[in-house]
Amino acid sequence: MSKTIITTSAAPAPIGPYNQAVQAGNPDKPGQSMLFISGQVCIDPATGNLKNKDIQEETHRVMHNLKAILQQAGMDFSDVVKTTIFITDMHRFAEINEVYGEYFEGSFPARETVQVSALPRFVNLEISMIAMK
Questions:
Q1: Model's pTM, two decimal places?
Q2: Domain limits at 22?
Q3: Which of 8, 34, 40, 86 is the most interior residue, by most CB within 10 Å?
Q4: What are residue 77's phi and psi, to 5 degrees?
Q5: Residue 40: which residues within 8 A CB-CB, separation 6 or more?
Q6: Strand 33-40 to strand 3-6: parallel, antiparallel, or no bridges (unpaired)?
Q7: 21-48 exposure pattern, b = at least 16 Cβ within 10 A, e = fewer
Q8: Tell me, what's the pLDDT at 31?
Q9: pLDDT tens-digit series, residues 78-119
């Protein structure tokens, strides 16, 4: 089994000692490659600034960052099998869920959503993913 570090300038650089994603397995054989994407927040990779005017903008930016990493690994949202959503206010769940759902076109992965007391850079939302191809 091989392990490949996935990095793209189309998503924010890590703000700590981790990689954007790690691909394990054989990406050339269907069903034998898994992608583990580190939690993404609403950092705009072009500017390094937070895109958090409101919870919808924040969620879209997170999903765009995740999409860029998926694409770098030769995958898309249809390959996602599991997500974890961390939010700081469960009262915002419906608003986040509405935007999040737009990206999967009805093919939803398994998921849990957890309320936490704080997230890096004091954002409201962080999402990590596992994909398989």
A1: 0.95
A2: 3-132
A3: 40
A4: -60, -25
A5: 11, 12, 62, 65, 66, 69, 126, 127, 128
A6: unpaired
A7: bbbebebeeeeebbbbbbbbbbbebeee
A8: 74
A9: 999 999 999 999 999 999 999 999 999 888 999 999 999 999
- The single-letter code of the amino acid at 117 is S
Q: What is the pLDDT of residues 32-66, one digit of tens each?
A: 899 999 999 999 999 999 999 999 999 999 999 99
Dist. CA 130–CA 133, nearest whole Å: 10
**How far is residue 66's CA from residue 78's CA, in Å, rounded to a whole number?**
13
The angle at the Cα of 49, spanning 39 to 77, to the nearest 5 degrees, equals 40
HEC string of the chain? CCEEEECCCCCCCCCCCCCCEEEEECCCCCCCEEEEEEEECCECCCCCCECCCCHHHHHHHHHHHHHHHHHHCCCCHHHEEEEEEEECCHHHHHHHHHHHHHCCCCCCCEEEEEECCCCHHHCCEEEEEEEEC
CATH code, domain with 55 = 3.30.1330.40
74: Cα separation from own chain's centroid: 15
How many domains does the chain divide into? 1
